[in-house]
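Section 3.1: Structural characterization of target chains.
Under the original work plan, the team committed to producing a structural model for every single-chain target entering the pipeline before any wet-lab resources were allocated. The record below documents one such target. The sequence was received from the expression subgroup and is listed exactly as submitted; it comprises 453 residues.
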Amino acid sequence: MTKKSWEEIRQDLISAVGKSNYTNWIEPLEFVRIEGGVAKFHVPTTFMGNWVLRNFGDHILRELAKSGNKVTRVEFAVRETAKTDRKRAAKSQDKPASAVAGQIGGEVPGAPLDARFTFESFVVGKPNELAHAAARRVAKGGAVTFNPLFLYGGVGLGKTHLMHAIAWELRKRSSGLHVVYLSAEQFMYRFVQALRDKDMIAFKQLFRSVDVLMIDDVQFIAGKDATQEEFFHTFNALVDQKRQIIVSSDSAPTDIDGIDDRIVSRLQSGLVVDVHPTNYELRLGILQQKVEQFSEQFPNLGIQDGVLEFLAHRISSNVRVLEGALMRLFAFASLVGREITMELTQDCLSDVLRASDRKITVEEIQRKVSEHFNIRLSDLIGPKRVRTFARPRQIAMYLSKQLTSRSLPEIGRRFGGRDHTTIMHGVRKIEELKQQDSQIADHVELLRRSLEA
């Protein structure tokens, strides 16, 4: 098979495996020859060969067969230097990937990075500003300031986004830097493969030769003793060499069940940063940024005032759900040729809105607010207008409007039979004070988090 025909087959593989997979896993393959029904390729490392064989071997075999080649299997070998390779070619056939030791010259194959996840596309707000600042500091490279950087928080809060952003920035600043990002599951898979292939020396050399190691969702190795042991030794080796480690989890180190105490101690030895749940302002900022991006795809679509604010209030648990809802909304409006109005939003996203319904009651808000300000519930609801009671009452009105589906008249009835215009005035007053008085803003945010927890 000529080089040209392999190039043609590679183009066919783009549509078969997707652009991202092609760039990360297929493009680095170097076709060698077809011999005895075996298509042979060179790969940078043993683990890359094993990964491609496991995940894309059937695709490659199918495309080779479609091109008229009589191929029954594919085989991958680590490429030696050109001189050594020529000597071996004259003496023997290439060894299969499962039997070849990994070479230090090849970079550890990490998981593909998402081109969307950069610092430029990350929306910063109060809940994530510390995590963002720490990630920016690590991304500058140079001397290691804190090791490891440990990011933790719930699903869809931006941990993975920040890790990808760090990797992109480090690679941009220094193209020769070995920056490896992968999930804890992928780390375990490669460790198991090395055990199975009796190739632990190559595994240790590869992972301990990187400049920056990034492990996502480290909680996955909880309860997996052998993987934890190897992770522990890899961690220590890299720290001793002053190599940067970045780890993420859904929980703080001490809250991960099934993790060895030695690993917990190591994870706590650097900077541990909690990525807090999003607040309304941050969610609104994310939506506004997404609208700008979607406007390029859907240039003729209009969006009615108030829709983004509505979504930012109603979908609060997960940024991924929020972004997915907006994408669905734009796609639906484009297909039916209509402006994105509040009515269309509620129709199109009825299932998402039902699932995201906070189910917080006005009565619950009143209890929380009265406890927070240490006043009696009867005074919060009652007629007294002194500021000690009036300001907490307005905050409770504001939160009732934002966190429940009750109408203004309904809220008014639960505040001692007040008119809806009184509720509206209270809501507007708190909206104004939030911009002018940081203490009021802190009270509102603290209460919101407590109610949404």
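Residues 180 and 213 are 5 Å apart (CA to CA).
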